[in-house]
Amino acid sequence: MEPLTWTGSLAILNPLFVGAWAFLIVAFVVSSVVSAFSVERAISAGASAPTRISAASWASLGVTAGLALVALVTFAYLIGGIALQDPQQKGILGILATRFLPVWLALAATFALSLTFKRRLGLYGKLFDSTIGMAGFAIVMFWVFTAIFGAMDLIVTHDPLAQLSGMKNAVPGSAVTQEGVYPYYLLGGDNLARDVFSRMVKGAWVVVRIAPFATLFAFMVGITLGLPAAYYGGKLDTFLTFLANLILAFPVILLFYLLVTPEIVQTGLPTYMAAVLFLLPIVFVAVLIHSRHFTDLRKDAIYLTIALAIGLWLYLGIAWDADPLGIIDFPPNLLVVFVSVVFVNAPTVFRIVRGLALDIKTRDYVAAAQTRGEGPWYIMLWEILPNARGPLIVDFCLRIGYTTILLGTLGFFGLGLSPESPDWGSTINDGRKLLSIYPHPALAPALALMSLVLGLNLLADGLREESLRD
């Protein structure tokens, strides 16, 4: 079989694609120059500024038109690639568009439902009033759906650990000589003859499985300790703040490295840390429920029983790898990375929550709740915490991005995850050895990592923008 080209029969769109990008770049440069010039003239000329503002508006419209052209041509690539049948005609981009078809459908359904019911979805719904927020959300959900469908083997073309003869450092689109497997390495092969595309897709599952949930656990730990420290103050606040500052005194990367080194792992310290840290989310949920429903004993008992049963099941499966149902599979090396993320991020979350709570506890509605005779934990969790949700949600998105970078850095240095793991950091490290000759094995996971972090940052910006409007 002949190797695939990047665009196949869709090469007729290449001049349009290049032209659209050229127009966008020129429009962006012109818009930047005109905007800066118009601001300077407006300051110096006062009332004569409107004509310059009009020029800046036209330049901004040109940028919007350029973005629309790029999006339109990209959409044409996707539709054409999905519609064509012959792989040689589809090209690499067309086949990739077809492989990601479940992701496109899931994204379309998510956006359609979200836009339809956005006025009923609170802050999440308001996110769709922000162009930046929607762009970030689309990028993040692309990788989330890619991870989910990749784990179900609906996207990958090969086993990410399989080594095929003759495919070492194969260029993108190379034909596979062996029978009974997918006939192409879409994004080429690495230095161990493994499929780069399949490893990139499977690597998304590693990130999605660790980064959001580890960050969520860190937030539960930080909130559980930060709220009482701010509300009660005194010696409790002094002690917890001292512990947080003590941990934060270490450089984050260095502390992360120390926790995942084999010497520390062999002492069993990460397991003991997990045993302590992972109890706090259970305490958080239990107190959250009890403080809300303590006046209704029947409902309180039912909700607490369900929450504690699920929490203890997760606790046994994650912290001790002793799931009685055999459903949770949490390898020791994954636990080490997970608990390290929680331990490193929790002090920062603690300080953010403490700072917000110190301000909010002086508000009138908190004094009103105290006057009504509400308990301290009810006030902390149902009066103070909801009013701090905006900054916390924004920080949550940003912290997932930081965690993603940390995971990539650990994988790059061969720490934490297993050596054959398809995580993006390990794949970049494998590809860097021959980067000057064969850049594609490292380029694909690097772009994936960059795009996910970019999407999380854009999503955080959109959430911040909408939360400030509340």
TrEMBL record:
Domain ABC transmembrane type-1: 204-460
Keywords: Cell membrane, Membrane, Transmembrane, Transmembrane helix, Transport
Stored Pfam families: BPD_transp_1
One of the GO BP terms on file: transmembrane transport
Entries under InterPro entries matching the protein: BP-dependent_transpt_permease, MetI-like, MetI-like_sf
Family indicated by similarity: Belongs to the binding-protein-dependent transport system permease family.
Protein name: Peptide/nickel transport system permease protein
Organism field: Silicimonas algicola
Taxonomy of the source species: Bacteria, Pseudomonadati, Pseudomonadota, Alphaproteobacteria, Rhodobacterales
